[in-house]
Design brief:
By secondary structure, the chain is an alpha/beta fold. The chain folds into two domains: 11-232, Rossmann fold (3-Layer(aba) Sandwich); 242-310, Alpha-Beta Plaits (2-Layer Sandwich), CATH 3.30.70. It is built from eleven helices and 14 strands. It has helices spanning 55-62, 84-87, 107-117, 126-135, 151-164, 181-198, 209-215, 233-240, 257-264, 286-298, 313-323, and strands at 11-24, 27-40, 44-48, 70-75, 78-79, 91-94, 169-173, 201-205, 218-223, 226-232, 244-250, 266-272, 276-282, 303-308. The two termini are 32 Å apart. The structure holds adenosine-5'-triphosphate (ATP). The site of adenosine-5'-triphosphate has 13 residues, from strand 1, strand 2 and helix 1.
């Protein structure tokens, strides 16, 4: 098969069969296990997964910072591991912890420096840098050394420096971590604007599902080094819509009800106290819905409420990770 990812420029990021095994003191760990996806230009993608799922390794492999054990990665048609410096003209990143800004330099000087790294003459970008500073609400601090800024402000400067590099694709690791609500909203708006108006491709990792739901077009969920879901946020929400119900019944449940329900339906939650029992069910279609009503009827329970639960991405994420049998991370010796 021809390497389509090496030729198609409209695909911002292409990952094909990516595998990474780390060799540690306690043996080998397969951090990423055959991951493939393509991200078209202008898309905002959330890369999600529980701790240790392989997100950072995947991102580092895309950025050329980790050498894959096998598989290929390209950005805007450039094979990252073969042509790293050319790839860096297309992609930049703000990675975990290392908010790579220079604390002795002012905000404005940092933007100029990072523009310079890309071969851009910063003198020709004063207006653009002013815009970035304004968008990030850093006007009052523009000529202040970064070391005098708060942690959240430093984070914004790191984001600004990524923008100053003017690459079409950006990777942002936990971009809103530690930011206040207003700043988070502003950055969410800016990320959406960058994608819509400037056709930027943005890949972000975050454990905050509200942020993901607010900005992403699509989510890729990793678990145990594999992709367990890859879909638009809309589809994921739709797929779960009107399927989860919360049922409240009088008193402790009739004997065996939980088992009967669990045999036929997916019971997500169960909570009993002396007066009421509340449980949640995932029902795939109207047949299941009526079958469930029948089961409750036959069990002679008195249903207080039977309500649809509005899905949110966080519930879907937890459900996906819990119901997918994660492959073993450890590679057998
Ligand atoms: N340099 C390394 N050497 C050995 N094992 C590693 C190394 N980096 C990561 N791993 C292991 O690879 C697996 C995936 O780690 P990775 O950091 O990619 O996950 P993650 O999804 O980014 O997790 P988190 O959300 O906790 O940051 C984990 O089991 C981790 O311990």
């Amino acid at each position: 098969m021809k390497d389509r990812e090496h030729t198609d420029e409209s695909v911002a990021v292409s990952v094909s069969g990516l595998t990474k095994t780390y060799t540690g003191e306690d043996g080998d760990v397969m951090a990423v296990d055959g991951v493939s996806f393509d991200i078209p230009s202008g898309q905002v993608v959330g890369l999600l997964g529980p701790n240790g799922a392989g997100k950072t390794t995947t991102v580092k492999a895309i950025l050329g910072l980790v050498t894959p054990t096998s598989g290929t990665v390209s950005v805007h048609g450039i094979p990252v591991h073969e042509e790293r410096s050319r790839a860096y003209t297309r992609v930049s990143a703000v990675l975990e912890g290392a908010r790579n800004v220079y604390w002795r330099l002012t905000v404005r000087e940092n933007l100029a420096f990072f523009a310079g790294l890309q071969g851009i003459d910063p003198k020709t970008r004063r207006a653009e840098h002013d815009d970035i500073i304004e968008t990030l609400g850093l006007e009052a601090k523009a000529d202040e050394p970064v070391r005098n800024l708060s942690r959240g402000m430093k984070q914004k400067v790191a984001f600004g420096c990524t923008l100053a590099r003017e690459t079409p694709t950006l990777f942002l690791d936990e971009p809103m971590l530690g930011l206040d609500v207003t700043t988070t909203r502003d950055l969410e708006t800016e990320i959406r604007r960058l994608a819509r108006q400037e056709d930027k491709t943005i890949v972000l990792t975050s454990h905050d599902m509200d942020v993901i739901q607010a900005v992403c077009d699509r989510v890729i969920v990793l678990d145990g080094g594999r992709v367990i879901a890859d879909d638009s946020v809309e589809n994921l929400l739709d797929a779960f819509e009107a399927q989860t119900y919360r049922v409240r019944i009088d008193g402790g449940p009739a004997k065996g009800l939980r088992e009967t329900l669990a045999e036929r339906f997916r019971v997500l939650d169960w909570d009993t106290d002396t007066d009421t029992t509340t449980f949640e069910l995932a029902l795939t279609d109207s047949d299941e819905f009526f079958a469930c009503v029948n089961v409750l009827d036959e069990a002679n329970v008195s249903v207080q409420t039977f309500t649809e639960i509005e899905p949110n991405l966080e519930d879907i994420f937890v459900d996906l990770v819990e119901t997918t049998e994660a492959p073993l991370l450890e590679v057998p010796q």
